[in-house]
Amino acid sequence: MRKIVATRRVLFDAAGHFHDDDGWAMASHLAISALMALFPFLIFATTLASFLGADAFAETAVHLVFDTWPDQIAAPIAREVVNVLTVPRTDLLTYGVVLAAYFASNGVEALRTSLNRAYRITETRTFWFRRIQSIFFVLIATISFVAISVLLVFAPIIARILEAKFEWIQPYMGTITVWRFTIASAVIVFGLFAVHMWLPAGRRRFLSIIPGIVFTLIAWVVGSTIFAAYLDTFSSYVTTYAGLASIMIAVVFLYIVSAIFILGGELNAAISRYLEARARVPG
């Protein structure tokens, strides 16, 4: 009974603060910021990857970003992304790429603002510190994507060598699609831990952010599945929005994911508040 009361108190606290602190409006802001940051980030990353010799980066980046999206949403957007990324670019280290990195960092700033609100924290760090940290996040993500791109190029060769030397490993190797999905999922999990730990102001213990991340991952899968089923069965987006259908679907999907992400932060904050209140009660 006590656990039920505690669970209800935490959930009501998280949902109430999400509503009172304009969580839906923040989800909208985060969704649009993420969409606007996506192309600049991929353009910057592709240009840097080409400079480093990772010519297969565009395809890998598309898989890493969109493999965890429902196919109905990802397919049309992914085609346009590939069209943009395969345009030859020679402006590395010029203002074009610098601006792309800056605009990509706006998406990171939207994550920071959302989490500061969710964790009920007042930001005290300077603008320059926050912006440099956001650009650093963009650079780390880019370098990680490039490293994964190179790894996936050599993955079939490595797999054949391992299978030749260790026959027992063959059933566990899977296909390149399985590996891409696994890596994309791992990138999401690592990214969630990184942004919850270091983007908001203040300090958080590693264990304290796990409940919100677990909630985010589960709710993401459930929400994506339901939205994909809705698109298959009931959607009138194509007839309503015509050529804008794919972008409208992406916006709605990102809005759902953004609300889930913010609720994950709210859940962590609510649990921390409950535990602090319990610690103050004598006996």
Automatic annotation (TrEMBL):
Pfam families registered for this protein in UniProt: Virul_fac_BrkB
Keyword Ion transport: no
N-terminal signal peptide: none
Membrane topology type: Multi-pass membrane protein
Segments crossing the lipid bilayer: 30-52, 92-111, 132-158, 178-199, 206-230, 242-263
Keywords from the named record: Cell membrane, Membrane, Transmembrane, Transmembrane helix
Principal localisation: membrane
Subcellular location, record wording: Cell membrane
Record NCBIfam families: yihY_not_rbn (TIGR00765)
Name by which UniProt lists this protein: Membrane protein
Protein's organism: Aminobacter ciceronei
High-level lineage: Bacteria, Pseudomonadati, Pseudomonadota, Alphaproteobacteria, Hyphomicrobiales
